[in-house]
Automatic annotation (TrEMBL):
SUPFAM superfamilies reported in the protein's UniProt record: P-loop containing nucleoside triphosphate hydrolases
Protein name: DEAD/DEAH box helicase
Organism placement in taxonomy: Bacteria, Bacillati, Actinomycetota, Actinomycetes, Kitasatosporales
Source organism per UniProt: Streptomyces yanii
Domain Helicase C-terminal, first and last residues per copy: 335-487
SMART domains cross-referenced by the UniProt entry: DEXDc, HELICc
Domain Helicase ATP-binding positions: 108-294
Length: 841
């Protein structure tokens, strides 16, 4: 029997990320009706005062598990390098900035020296100005060329919203320079009639990696004058380019560098990142170039109060009768309501689009009970809106008309929202870098700020709110990406060959894996070797071979059956779990039921409906070891890392009641199995270790299964991933290892670096896993410790105490992690060990 735990691409999109939807029929503190009038903006309360009001108004003091006070910091000024044009310095001064911060001047100096540089400083530290000063100076020089475009610059943002926001900022800053600087956005929202003007006349083009991949690079002859003059490439929020997406972007950047060289350009790369571990290393892997880092933040910062908040237990019960906490969605909606009534400008970050809409709806309803004018001052902001809707919300944010916003990470990245007082984060966002990025959205004008992390009912969130040192005393994570992943590299080699035939001299640019891949692409008749190099052989566009944000394969179109209207797409790899027959699908506030999934034509037909339930796919998984790269003894057991093949089949789906999560029924499905070749970390235990841990055959499966669930929930603390990026399988007797084995694998073809990171931090990772299980106050397991929202076996069997004993014994002989800064507490020293009864308990 195998107990499996699969990544997001293999599960229903509704259940995992949006906790059980909440309506007024769920107890939501009916005595909670804030009555204070909004504060005057001239008498802005301190962050501590705002938090005190939130806590005392509804008797919530027990929900705060920790409060961290970050003191204010003074800034250190410098002077601009003398090579920055005086007109640019004058424009900056006109914007109210007399002198740069020291890190801004240092970054500009490197850029002017022709050195690629990454600026890795805190939120609101002025990274944009650090790269804009040399860029604007170069564009001003270029405007004096005969054609008026002797220098150009390209700006890459991970989202359309950020590119649009940066265009506004550049236009305002460069206004005194007249027509010398001509910024323009070029993305999917750009009208066709404007695109030719952008190609021919704009000298600062703002776009995203998707448009660069599909639109600009394949059409490079039409961009020849722009590329020939390209002086700088700005990559903003570069810490977001991690995992498989980051690996794709790294190859897109290499294709850009290759075409620039063809046109005689050698642009300098300027990267901006949130605070990150080893930013120069990550930036170097992204660009393929040596990159200098500027990481000493010289900007001032206001006081920040950061509270960790755990919702209370409810009277509801989940699977196997487990206790259920009040949802982070409901708790966050209440907090956003209270903050709005206080007149505190706030953003609530939530991970799912559905969650953002739900928090906004609940907050509006509660605000209407206080003051009929207040609901209009709260809105939701997420991806999927029409461009005009998105722009209108951004204008309302800038003007201050909106007081409260429920947003997905679409708002996390750099958009200048000045004057925010508070940020509420509904669930740990997956990395410390993202947590601080979201928290940093408050206090962006240097004033004090309040941040609240509201824990979801899962192992990682529960661990973090009870172990604040894991958030506040640890550095942010390294950015993990692997440009040499063959599943990523192959389609980009085809795209590069379609842009220009691949010559021998190009191969070094794309990395050492090219030599092995080219014969395979020739054998597949995708490339053909000729005297001039390798050529693309097909009629279709090579850039369409891969979706850089997905996992390859042809996207499945979601079509409304009655009208033929295209609602959207879903990655091919996610179709079995997200749009199987009978699945509930959400789109812009409307609910649809999937009537048919046609895998051959890649179409899911849906019709609008209002079912009182959500759906969750269930599946079975088996795993085969293909190759063991590394193996380390852990006592008699082994810790291994290598290549595996995962076979998964969606076999049924559950219908769950919207309000309580109660299972209404299970429906069988007939879908073909799917295979995934990827990378995994796995550990084995011997019979002697099982005997020492008092694990008998009756509880072995449950102990392994519980340890697997909790370890997957805790891995994002050690690798830059989301629990939905990884999967797991636990087997009491695996045919390849011939021992009880737990596997944790990357949920992406070829791997994404997460399992490798888990291997190198295994002792710390599994120690934290054991502590998270042992410290949970539940009796036999709950979503806060060992239950998983995406378990293919319905969280059965699970054995909490067995998992603690098993991990204790495994860790007893574990060597220190190679990357470990300090020795972790030994398992025996943990004071949170529960009573461990006889072997059968």
């Amino acid at each position: 029997m195998a107990f499996n735990h699969l990544p997001a691409a293999m599960h229903d999109a509704l259940g995992p990320l949006s906790v059980t939807p909440v309506t007024h029929s769920v107890p939501m503190a009916k005595n909670h009706r804030p009555s204070r009038p909004p504060e005057s903006r001239d008498s802005r309360p301190s962050p501590a005062m705002v938090l005190d009001r939130l806590v005392t108004a509804a008797g919530r003091s027990a929900r705060i598990t920790h409060t961290e006070h970050l003191p204010p910091r003074t800034g250190a000024h410098a002077i601009w390098p003398d090579r920055i044009r005086p007109e640019v310095i004058a424009a900056v001064q006109k914007a109210g900035i007399d002198h740069p911060w020291a890190h801004q001047a240092a970054a500009a100096e490197h850029a002017l020296d022709g050195e690629s540089v990454v600026i890795a400083t805190g939120t609101a530290s002025g990274k944009s100005l650090a790269y804009l000063a040399p860029v604007l100076s170069a564009l001003l020089d270029g405007s004096e060329a005969p054609n008026g475009r002797g220098a150009t610059a390209l700006y890459l943002a991970p989202t359309k919203a950020l590119a649009a926001d940066q265009r506004r900022s550049v236009k305002d800053l460069a206004a005194p320079l007249g027509n010398a600087v001509r910024p323009a956005v070029y993305d999917g929202d750009t009208p066709v009639e404007e695109r030719e003007w952008v190609r021919q006349y704009a000298n600062y083009v703002l776009t995203n990696p998707d448009m660069l991949h599909r639109g600009i690079l394949p059409s490079h002859p039409r961009w020849s004058s722009f590329l020939r003059a390209l002086r700088y490439v700005v990559i903003d929020e570069c810490h977001t380019y991690r995992g498989v997406f980051g690996s794709h972007v790294a190859q897109v950047v290499r294709r850009l560098r290759r075409l620039c060289a063809r046109y005689g350009a050698d642009p300098v790369f300027l990267l901006a990142s949130a605070t990150a571990a080893q930013p120069s290393v990550a930036a170097g892997r992204l660009t393929g170039l040596p990159v200098i880092e500027v990481a000493d933040d010289a900007s001032p910062r206001g006081e920040m109060v950061f509270a960790l908040w755990e919702p209370p237990l409810t009277e509801l019960h989940g699977e196997k009768g487990a206790p259920v906490r009040r949802t982070a969605t409901a708790e966050t909606a209440d907090l956003l309501t209270d903050l709005t009534v206080q007149g505190v400008r706030s953003v609530a970050f939530v991970r799912s689009r559905r969650g953002a809409e739900l928090i906004s709806v609940i907050a509006k309803e509660r605000l209407a009970e206080v003051d009929r004018s207040l609901p209009d001052r709260v809105a939701a902001y997420r991806g999927g809106y029409l461009p005009e809707e998105r722009r209108a919300l951004e204008r309302a944010l800038h003007s201050g008309r909106l007081l409260g916003l429920a947003a997905t990470t679409a708002l996390e990245l750099g958009i200048d929202v000045s004057g925010l007082d508070a940020v509420v984060i509904a669930g740990y966002p997956g990395t410390r870098a993202s947590l601080w990025q979201q928290a940093g959205r408050a206090g962006r004008s240097g004033q004090g700020a309040l941040a609240i992390l509201v824990a979801r009912d899962d192992p990682l969130d529960t661990f973090l709110v009870h172990h604040p040192e894991a958030l506040f005393q640890q550095p942010v994570e390294s950015t993990v990406l692997d440009p040499d992943n063959p599943y990523v590299l192959a389609p980009h080699l085809c795209a590069a060959a379609a842009e220009l035939p691949l010559a021998e001299s190009d191969l070094e640019l794309f990395g050492p894996a090219v030599a092995e891949l080219l014969p395979q692409l020739e054998a597949a008749k995708l490339l053909r070797k000729r005297a001039s190099g390798w050529h693309w052989t097909r009629r279709e566009r090579a850039a369409d071979l891969t979706d850089i944000r997905g996992e390859g394969g042809r996207p499945v179109q979601i079509v409304e059956e009655g009208t033929g209207r295209l609602l959207g797409t879903v990655d091919e790899s996610a179709a079995h779990t997200a749009v199987h027959e009978g699945a509930v699908h959400l789109h812009q506030g409307c609910t649809y039921l999937v009537r048919k999934l046609d895998l051959e034509d890649s179409v899911a037909l849906v019709e609008e409906a209002g079912p009182p339930y959500s759906t969750t796919a269930r599946d079975t998984t088996s795993i085969t070891v293909l190759e063991t790269d590394t193996e380390i003894p852990w006592g008699d057991g082994r810790l291994c890392y290598g290549s595996v093949e995962v076979t998964n089949q969606v076999v049924s789906f559950l219908r769950r009641k919207l309000i309580t999560g109660e299972v209404l029924g299970e429906t069988k499905l007939d879908l073909p199995p799917r295979t995934l070749r990827t990378r995994a970390v796995w550990w084995t235990v011997t019979q002697d270790q099982l005997d020492a841990a008092r694990i008998n055959p009756e509880i072995l499966g449950g102990a392994l299964h519980a340890a697997e669930h909790a370890s997957i929930g805790l891995l994002p603390l050690f690798a830059t991933c989301d629990r939905w990026d990884i999967g797991g399988v636990s087997v009491p007797l695996h045919p390849d290892t011939l021992l009880p084995t737990v596997f944790v694998y990357d949920g992406h073809p070829g791997g994404a670096g997460f399992a490798e990171r888990a291997f190198h931090t295994a002792r710390s990772w599994l120690t934290a896993t054991r502590r998270a299980i042992a410290s949970c106050e539940c009796e036999a397991g709950c979503p806060s410790c060992i239950q998983s929202p995406k378990c293919g076996n319905g969280n059965d069997p699970l054995h909490k105490r067995g998992a603690v004993r098993l991990l204790t014994e495994l860790l007893r002989s574990a060597p220190a992690d190679p990357e470990q800064a300090g020795e972790p507490p030994s398992p025996e020293a943990d004071r949170d060990r529960p009573s461990e009864g006889p072997p059968g308990t």
